Amino acid sequence: LFLVVSIIFAYVMSRRAMKPIIHSFVRQQKFTADASHELRTPLTVLHSSIEVLENETEDILSPFGKQVMDDMKDEVRRMTSLISNLLSLAQADAAVVDLTYDEFSLDGELERAFRNFQPIAQQQAIKLVLKANTQVIVRADQERLQQLFVILLDNAVQYTAAGDRIMMKATVKGNLLTLQIQDTGIGIPEAKLQEVFERFGRVDESRNRTQGHTGLGLSIAKWIVESHGGTIWVESEVGIGSTFFIALPIVSHLATT
Ligand code: ADP
Question: Transmembrane residues, as ranges (predicted)?
Fold first, then answer.
């Protein structure tokens, strides 16, 4: 009896002791999520203001002035992307985000991501190939899935040189959807293959062609995939290229149209 009473006592005391710690942890995560959200609004305003200013001063600005204007827009974009990445991670930590499940065409969603990357790929003479003729309707969080495609395509473009190729391929077997994003870029050393999915996990700062990459993208990608019950991994060879694989059990049914 003494043992049982002791165990119950210890349990009650430990719950009491843990309560403020848990509360403060949740409060802190909630604060980060709220703060990130609030920070995005002024940045959106700032971005539009710079664009207005740019239009108004188009004829009078010197090349240097135009460059400064472009730099300002780049910085705002970088901050916006950093904040929205931090927001995603804070929401993941605080478990305040519930995925919103919708049914939509997988091919359509992949095409949407591809369309958005076509101009930037063309600009850098990178060939984009999409092999997605699955004709399936998936049940998933549409915006999160789009965010996932953007992270992976953005990286593929970032770490691939002019003249290279990026291919996105979707295949479906039973209830399992497999996505492959393959590039012929610089590759990732074997020792770093796990690390890249960690927060701020980067192979080497000097490898980035443009600023703004913070090492958060793949940790968010991992969170999106895992919160849909899937897995993500990468196979890569330095100097040959990388292929990111995503396996997701989210196919609801074959489309009838
Ligand atoms: P970042 O914002 O730095 O790109 P990510 O989390 O998206 O952060 O990626 C982490 C690191 O993984 C990158 O810094 C880069 O070193 C490496 N990486 C990601 N994708 C690729 C790729 N397609 N090819 C080569 N290296 C990559």
Answer: 1-14
